[in-house]
Input
Amino acid sequence: MSGELSPIDKAKFVAAKRATRYVESGMRVGLGTGSTAAWLVQCLGELVREEGLRIKGVPTSSRTAALARDVGIDVISLDEAKWLDVTIDGADEYDGNLNLIKGGGGALLQEKIVATASDQMVVIADISKQVETLGAFPLPVEVIPFGWQTTKALIEEMLIGMDVLGRSTSLRMNGESPYVTDEGNHIIDLHLNRIGNARQLSLVLNQIPGVVENGLFIDICDAVVIGYGDGRVEVRDIVKGEIDTERFDFLEEDNLFGDIAD
Ligand code: 5RP
Output
């Protein structure tokens, strides 16, 4: 990712940079997973190395843990932290109530546990993640490997009674093999197109034996920081009831991934 940033990377970068203002020295911070969250980890690492920011980071995946250590963030487990001041993470979709679909990167279980154990959850995203109604992005559901085909069949049967537009499901693959999460589980993606009642679907999914957790984050997110390719950033904070916009300038050194080979 060397050289000039693409508009989408600029959008992710400015969202991440703006979101670092939610972080203060002494805080315990949940670190999300995915390409947008990776920008956040890079930005926080820079503040730790160059401005003396003192934080403890609780990563939501082995990938994020490795990156956080690489950039100089002090990494601790959730059990060591017990409770977090803020979690900052990406999302696959967010709606007007800041309900989310997450798990495109396969880390939804740790992400949900960490976000729920935080005073505040802030989502960083580009505007493409904004939707009127959740469901265009396939909903990830983490299931234990034992009897996964039976669990998948039970999910499909349950979907018949739900307010959704599509009902097909697929086991997430990693090449020829089923994808395996950090907890050793599999993911079934639900192709629903439109989810009429996300709260109900989330509750019902989690009652199916074999389902560990689903990627619907309902009433968990407090604010979304939306980045644009031209440097604009909009913050929508539903707790404070505030909307704030500003613009960031890009400097060559803003490509914090510049030293990483493409
Ligand atoms: C990982 C996630 C990610 O936050 C989500 O997939 C968004 O990723 P990206 O920022 O790469 O678009 O939920 O499980």
User: Anything to note?
Assistant: The chain has a mean pLDDT of 95. DSSP finds seven helices and 17 strands in the chain.
